[in-house]
Amino acid sequence: AFETHNAGKKGISYSYYTNFVKFLFYTGCRPSEAVGLRWKHINDDCTKIAFTEAIVRAGGKPLSRETTKTKKNRNFPCTNTLQALLLSIKPEHSQPEALVFPNREGNPINYNDFSRRAWKRVTKLINLHEKNGMITTPYNCRDTFITLQALQGNSSDTIARWVGNTAEVIRKHYIYKLALEHLKPTDI
Question: CA dist 37 to 159, 173, 185, Å?
Fold first, then answer.
């Protein structure tokens, strides 16, 4: 939906954010980690990403945190699809400190602004803004990644390492919920 979004009445196309949204789905990282990702965090052939910092907002201004939410750095192995995406956007002479996903002005993406404008507008167009009485946010890309990895049979320990959580959080909030949805009592 982001790929094909074109300017509406307000003249703003949100297709610019396509790669950012794909990255969220492909990695399950926290949006603040994607916003703070710099080219120095990705190896030359784009097969590994080091999540070591995040950009959050404080007083309306971007604030770089030289750590992740859990204060644990993690390495993420890229799939072929993710590698192709990163290689396709990697500048020929990238500066190590340059953001991988800057906003149109070259600054960090304002997550709240992105959520309120781009995400809301695009997801409303495809009837995904609200599901089961809940408003979706870009953070749901993380939930989707974790759920799909669990459905593929990846262990909670492995998924936890990839997304920067504990295995217990993965089991409690994702795997147990998935199991309960598919279980039913046996006939007696």
Answer: 20, 26, 46
Q: Which CB contacts under 8 angstroms, 24+ apart, belong to 70-77?
A: 70/164, 70/165, 72/164, 74/50, 74/161, 74/162, 74/164, 75/48, 75/49, 75/50, 75/51, 76/27, 76/29, 76/48, 76/49, 76/50, 76/51, 76/162, 77/47, 77/48
pLDDT at 146 over 90: yes
The residues that bridge with 54 in the sheet, in sequence order, are 65
Treating both helix axes as pointing N-terminal to C-terminal, what angle do 140-151 and 18-27 enclose, rounded to 10 degrees? 40
pLDDT at residue 71 tops 70: no
